[in-house]
Write the structure tokens for this entry.
Amino acid sequence: MRLANIFHLGCKELHCLIRDPILLFLIVYAFTVGVYAAGIAIPETLNRAPISIVDEDDSPLSERIAAAFYLPHFLPPVFTTLGEMDSRMDAGYDTFAINIPPDFQRDLLAGRPPTIQLNIDATRMSQAFTGNNYIQTIINNEVSEYYYRYRGESPTAASLAMRARFNQSLTQIWFGAVMEVINNVTMLSIILIGASLIREREHSTVEHLLVMPVTPFEIMISKSWSMGLVVLTSCAVSLTLVVQRALAVTIEGSLLLFLAGAALHLFATTALGIFMATVARSMPQFGLLMMLVLLPLQMLSGGVTPRESMPIVIQHVMQLAPTTHFVALAQTILYRGGGIEVVWHHFLKLVIIGTILFILALRRFRKTISLMA
């Protein structure tokens, strides 16, 4: 009878979710458009940066320099005049403006080192810092090849043979897309189960549950499995259709093993969501509480920056967070193709953390229901 109660209460939660178009739109958007946008719009990547060129030399060398800027790092250069260069920068049309002075090629061939002016719109922080190095390297290579009349690298005392593992082409889309899926699993699991519980309170349907022959344990389990099933299914579809097909990201490991780890992570985060929903009195309060809890969980879990670069105290504290172990096992399975023999300790820690959070949430939930009775 208890299993039947859990099943039917969970089906009731799914029916309530189907009738909520806002939450349905959030789920679809987060696992489709959100994942795709995060994959192609990584801030550290110079992509389609607008650039203009003032060519006062009008020489073969200046034309060669201008032709070296092309997609995908830069938009096709816009040739402008010296008088228009500042106005275009002020209007925000260009992030970079290159001014090639008169007699640039002649001074170079005569042995007089010429100077090219580079203007940067530093309000565009990510493009400004990254693009500076790109442009300097491009111009130096083109000038050197033109001056020495051959294309090649200068000999060095020691050479570096780089072998990139797990992402041989160093494609940053791989990192952004997968990590967005991981973050959405945490975010939506907390939002869905918290909204489910607060909706019961706002619609005064908690009283209906209190007069039914169900226990707080059954109510919590039913909400957890139903909302967890929605997030887990959305995660699997997103990894298959958006990440692997639309973005052409290679998944090295077992998708089923990752989903098993995601299920354990959902067990912990849904319990956390119920605990937060019992603390908050309304959806606005729950949203504010989510900002205080979710942002540290995601920023300090190792998905944005490596945990090794964080203070030692933060590293030890974040061992108590389920997101830390979920990010670690996800990166090991999806990026490096690791098996259960590598990530079993993360699975075990998720079980322990999830059990503790579930017990705390159950005690808080029972106390909240007793006050309503």
